[in-house]
Amino acid sequence: MATTTTTETAAGFDLSLTAEQELVQRTARDFAREKVLPRAAEIDEQKKIPRELIDEMARLGFMGIDVPEQYGGSGLDSLTYVLVVEEINRACASTGVVLCTHVSLAIEPILRWGSDAQKEKWLPPLARGESIGCFALSEPASGSDAAAMRTSARRDGDAWLLNGTKNFITNGAIADVAIVFAQTDASLKHKGIAAFVVEKGTKGFSVGKLEKKLGIRGSDTAQLVFQECRVPDANLIGSVGEGFKIALSTLDGGRVGIAAQAVGIARACLEDALAYAKEREAFGKKISEFQAIQWKLADMATEIDAARLLTWKAATLKDRREPFILEAAEAKLFASDVAVKAGRECVQIFGGYGYLTDFPAERHYRDAKITEIYEGTSEIMKLVIAEEVLKQ
Ligand code: CAA
To answer: Is 335 a member of any domain?
Structure first.
């Protein structure tokens, strides 16, 4: 069914999984099924992820999955990462997004643009899950138009003073390390933006409002506030002016992760709807025997496989160090749409029960929606895709 592990695309991509990738996928699936799934409803209701689940993901090597072994990580590739992300999100999208944000958005900038000293300082605790990361780009007045940020960074001796507010920050309240983007010279527009690592406890850095959300309620979404927050030069990632490229390039990878999250949520919708349809009877037979239900299941299964192919293709290109901006945006655009549709059909197949919080269908529907919004909306994905297509 939707858990096929070997596939080829027309573009000549042999996406057969290696024995190691299959092993990691199985490990993630077993962990998700045994430890995460039984707590998914409670996580959603209590709006909190038990720390032991994050610790267990760390113990399994998932929190530092793509960090080289020399920095305490698992040293695995992006394709393996998306396999894990799909499995965790099939069980619980709140737990899944903690992992996605930590790996794709917080670790990646340090891994790719950090100096040796910065890698040695921050990667080992992040890879071991002792330290949690977040990515602070969006602001109250700038989301899609990320370059319009108002958070400023002003030179002060051998340090920078940060002032401003970041919005919608996943992991914001639990993070020990934040990747913060700030404008050093507004007249330079995006060429004035710089990226900093700001550690929890730094004077002038505080967590503001915690948002109440439609879905992924177990993961925290916070405002981060910077008031004359002094950040040493040693915490600047890359060079001044390089921040915007670091942000957008990091988001390209993040979008592959969100595509995998959407595939995981959509798979949850299909598997739960399938199980229900095989049990529930109406008009003297199982509802799975009605073509009206079969067509919904057929569409869901087909779209999930297509979304997974796009996701694997983008991850494979990233692993090959080939351009993948287009493929990441296509995967996210398509997979998030598939997840939202699968959520709607899952609720529909469950009927009245689908509308109740006693069953998982409504949670899947609520969780799916965010995949069309965060890390670049579907509208922004279309902009990115059009721009890449027009270059060809
Ligand atoms: N990688 C690297 N560099 C890139 C790039 C990419 N993918 N895309 C563009 N750039 C570079 C361009 O080459 C250009 O560089 P030069 O000036 O040197 O030529 C520079 O960035 C500016 O490019 P644009 O003029 O195209 O930039 P823009 O301001 O028009 O923005 C955009 C383009 C696609 C709309 C971009 O702003 C974007 O992706 N916006 C969405 C932001 C987003 O995804 N936010 C989500 C935040 S994270 C989150 O959701 C919360 C959370 O906690 C996880």
So the answer is: yes
